[in-house]
Specification:
Strand content: 5-15%
Largest sheet: 8 strands, mixed
Number of strands: 16
Shape: globular
Bound molecules: phosphoenolpyruvate, magnesium ion
Distance between the termini: 43 Å
Radius of gyration: 26 Å
Strand order of the largest sheet: 1-8-7-3-4-5-6-2
Helix content: 40-55%
Structural class: alpha/beta
């Protein structure tokens, strides 16, 4: 009997391999020194030198294998280790003057440092606290002579299963043989998630329940899209995996050439195919799949899974990174959209009975001007590094759009006051509330672009909560009411000569995409992996054919007939 554990998929893909349990036993520093102080001192110096050499090696390897960003972590560790004033000297003093063992002195000093960094309640300092803890482990191991589990040279493919993976773990990882990552601790922006996406391997975080299962050495299937780890799959599950894997590989090979082509209909009408991303690292994946821009950069990733709010600098660095990765292609960054099902631990937001109809997105940020303007300043500054466009979420009418634009101007004035130039950027809005779609002709006078968010537009039009399993079958983009709102929005945008895109999941639906283009949606933004398929599809159809499909769908009386039309349509 197999056993499937459910976690959260944070890096797409599918793999089957043996599970390698990566466990780190807790290191224990003895209170009483086993040797005289001079020997404890010598032990510390030797351990520090070994750790220094090792970090230098990690730094070189990370620069080569993973790029500058990953390498910076080891540079930060090296700098901390070499800090005489707050690291080496206090440790030596504790050994010499207080008679502590080298291990105890190391433990105490790094704990003190980590607590100090944490108490400053600042995002950069929180990262320094994590550095201090990681470095403490490394030095303690060197002092106590406890070897680590070696994952640097593996002789077979494995899925690495661990409580948590930190940078000094993953840099040693044999990337030729680690084909998937699964951890208990971590979120969408955790190190595990980022490294997996960088390497293009599946990853699942938030996995629990495996601790007593002796999973090590067992065969397993890891599905980074579904967020599952299936231990000891049955013959049928293994066969289904093999089929799915083969299909995906074959389809990807065929589609590969469509990564590099520009997107257009058969008669040459350009349709921009862009990517939805959730972290700056994903911008690289976006370009590798041929994205012509980023149609939606969900900035929430910077704010969630943490107890403090990100400051201007941290945000600026993240937006800049995404812009630089896109090398001049447009990047639409959506301002903070939390509330609904997205929690924001750093702010004590009220509990609500109907969170999707409550204090969400623009409604919340307009009431937190300091938080909002910090983000807007970071965006305006980052705009100097590429083609950045700002998009406001959940706009229900002109009043909110104007208020958000006023905030933007205030943020610009704050920067100017600091002597920081802030150029003009295009300012658009999500159309994801039916009221906005119905008022699109008015809103188009005040927005530089629209992007239709079908994920929310469907739930608000049909009164069907997007994640509610009990009503899941009612949640569909094929309902004629949803299609009419999309068409009305695109028409209003065309009449006022502003671009109309779509960044909801429907944009990547191959059954619908041609009709969307026919309705006048000329930028479709989706998960990067879907881009080549949609590009190939559109290249087979003329604009007139797309318009024909749109007209036909808009005439349908109900969802079933729309479904029949889209399923019957042949390319
Ligand atoms: C949408 O609502 O369609 C959308 C893209 O935004 P999100 O899914 O982040 O709410
Ligand atoms: Mg939305």
């Amino acid at each position: 009997m197999s056993l499937t554990l459910q976690g959260r998929g944070v890096s797409d893909g599918l793999c089957m391999a043996e599970v390698l349990l990566f466990s780190k036993e807790k290191l224990c520093a003895p209170d009483v020194p086993a040797r005289p102080p001079e020997e404890e001192l010598a032990c510390f110096e030797a351990a520090a030198a070994r750790t220094r050499d090792r970090l230098q090696r990690f730094y070189n390897e990370a620069s080569e294998k993973l790029g500058g960003k990953e390498a910076e972590i080891f540079d930060a560790h090296l700098t901390m280790l070499q800090d005489e004033y707050s690291v080496a000297e206090p440790i030596r003093q504790a050994i010499r003057e207080e008679g502590l063992s080298a291990a105890k002195a190391v433990e105490r000093q790094f704990d003190t440092l980590a607590e100090l960094f944490e108490s400053l309640n600042d995002e950069l300092m929180a990262a320094r606290a994590a550095d201090a803890r990681d470095l403490k482990e490394q030095l303690l191991r060197a002092v106590l002579g406890v070897p680590e589990q070696d994952i640097s040279r593996l002789d077979r493919n494995v899925i690495l299963l661990a409580e948590e993976l930190v940078p000094s773990d993953t840099v040693k990882m044999d990337t030729g043989h680690v084909v998937g990552l699964a951890t208990h601790i971590g979120g969408i922006t955790s190190h595990t998630a980022i490294i997996a996406r960088t390497l293009g391997i599946p990853a699942v975080v938030g996995l629990s329940g495996w601790e007593g299962l002796e999973a090590g050495g067992k065969r397993a299937i890891l599905d980074g899209t579904a967020g599952t780890l299936t231990l000891e799959p049955t013959a049928e599950e293994a066969a289904a995996f093999a089929r799915k894997k083969k299909q995906t590989e074959q389809a990807e090979r065929e589609l590969a050439e469509y990564r590099r082509r520009p997107s257009a209909t058969r008669d040459g009408v350009p349709v921009e195919l862009c990517a939805n991303i959730g972290t700056p690292e994903e911008a690289k994946t976006a370009t590798s799949f041929g994205a012509e821009g980023v149609g939606l950069f969900r900035s929430e990733f910077l704010f969630m899974d943490r107890d403090t709010l990100p400051g201007e600098e941290e945000q600026f660095a993240a937006y800049r990174q995404a812009l630089e990765a896109m090398a001049g292609k447009p990047v639409i960054v959506r301002t903070l959209d939390v509330g609904g099902d997205k929690k924001l631990p750093a702010l004590d937001l009220p509990r609500e009975d109907n969170p999707f109809l409550g204090y969400r997105a623009i409604r919340m940020t307009l009431k937190h001007p300091e938080l909002f303007r910090t983000q807007l300043r970071a965006l305006l500054r980052a705009a100097a590094y590429g083609d950045l466009r700002i998009m406001f979420p959940m706009i229900s009418g002109a009043r909110e759009l104007r208020a958000a634009k006023t905030m933007l101007e205030q943020a610009r004035a704050e920067l100017t006051g600091r002597g920081v130039p802030a150029g003009r950027v295009r300012v658009g809005m999500m159309v994801e509330i039916p009221a906005a779609a119905l008022m699109a002709d008015q809103l188009a006078r005040e927005a530089d672009f629209f992007s239709i968010g079908t994920n929310d537009l469907i739930q608000y039009t049909l009164a069907v909560e997007r994640g509610n399993e009990n009503v899941a079958e009612l949640y569909t983009p094929y309902h004629p009411a949803v299609l009419r709102l999309i068409a009305a929005t695109a028409r209003a945008a065309a009449e006022h000569h502003i671009p109309c895109g779509m960044c909801g999941e429907a944009a990547g639906d191959a059954k619908l995409a041609p009709a969307l283009v026919g309705m006048g949606v000329r930028e479709l933004s989706m998960s990067p992996r879907l881009i080549p398929r949609i590009r190939r599809l559109l290249s087979c159809l003329t604009l007139a054919e797309c318009e024909g499909r749109a007209r036909k769908l808009l005439e349908q009386p109900d969802e079933e007939s729309v479904r029949r039309c889209v399923e019957g349509a042949q390319v």
